[in-house]
Structure formats: C-alpha cells, structure tokens
Amino acid sequence: MDSSSTEMASTEPNVYLFVPNLIGYARVALMFVAFYFITDPGMYHVTMTCYLLSQLLDAVDGHAARMLGQTSKLGAMLDMLTDRCSTLGLVMALGLLYKDWFFFFQCYAVLDIVSHWLHLTASHYSGATSHKTIDLSSNPILYYYYQNRTVLFSMCAGNELFFAALYLLYFSEGPNIGGYGFFRSVVICCAPVMVLKSVISVVQLIAAANNIVVVDTEEHTRAKE
Question: Any bridge partners for residue 181, and if so which?
Fold first, then answer.
C-alpha cells in the first residue's frame, strides 16, 4: 500500500465509533439489562430505570448525530430496531403479568412491528434516505406526525409512558396524588396517546402497502412496455 492509500485509509471515518452509534450501543445494553430483570418483583425499579433511560437516549443520539454531522444508515437502523425491540420486550412482559389482556398485547406488538417494517420497506423502494423522509405529502396524518418533531416526540413519549406505567402499576400504585396512585394516573392520562398512536400505526401500514403497490404497478407497466 502506497503512502496516498495509507493516508486515505487513515482519514476514513469509523462509522462504528460515531458518537450517536456509541449511544445506540448503550441503549441496547440498557435494554437487555431491563429485559433480564423484567419479571423479578424485587427489581422492577431497576428494570424501569434502565428501560426509560434507554428510551431517553433515543432523543440524545439523534441530536448528537445532527450536531456532530455523524448521521449514518447504521445509526438509523440501530435506532429504529432498538425502539421496536425494546417496546416489544416490554409488551411481551406485560402479556405475562396481565394475562387477561394477553391478546391485546399480542395485537399491539404485531401492529407495531408490521407497520414500521412495511413503512421502512416502502421508504427503501422509494429511494428515501430514511423512513422519516419518505414523501408523505399525500397523507397529512403521517406527514404531520413525522415532520413535526414535537408531535413525534410527544406521541412516542406518551406511548412509552403508558406501557412503562402499566408495568410499574402491577407492582405498586406509586406515590399518592389527589387520591390516585401516580402510576395509575399516568396510565389513565397516557392511554389516549397509546390509542391514537395505534391508529396512526394502522394508517402507516395502509399507506406503506399502497406505496409498495405503486412501485409494483410501475415495474409491471415498464415490463409490458
């Protein structure tokens, strides 16, 4: 290898060591710690501390990526997969704790995974660089959801707080506030957000399927020509 090649190799960025990706690895580690203790009645505080910290870091890694100019496809995939897997793990645990609602948790998990997977696939087929930058101008609900960071953060936070508080409620009511346990109050307040986000997931699923059908139709039309 000549000196120019060596110099070029030394200046190539190591995407694995991008700060946002390092934060992403920490999120994964926290997620697995939470999963390990999730059904232990004596460790539910540790479980939820690790889980919520992992979720909070979701906002930090995105900010760091933009501020440092270290956005990457690896980081985007790591971010989305960690989001989906952490929620899935918590919902699975809730299905064990609240057995009468097991079917609901199954349906929620399937909807969450399928809608995001189809949306990501539609983004890929359309040539978008991110599932958040696909052309959604024809769908005002999804456009406003993904383009308004305040709305996106509030919806995701409210949804996560619903399931987190529901988990904590199984073990404790939490501090008493106005005659209601704090955890129960959070569940009641965040339930409409969870329902609304589920509706948006259905809209996302249908829109993604329609976008993929458009790609299929164009390919078949070109093939006939």
Answer: 176
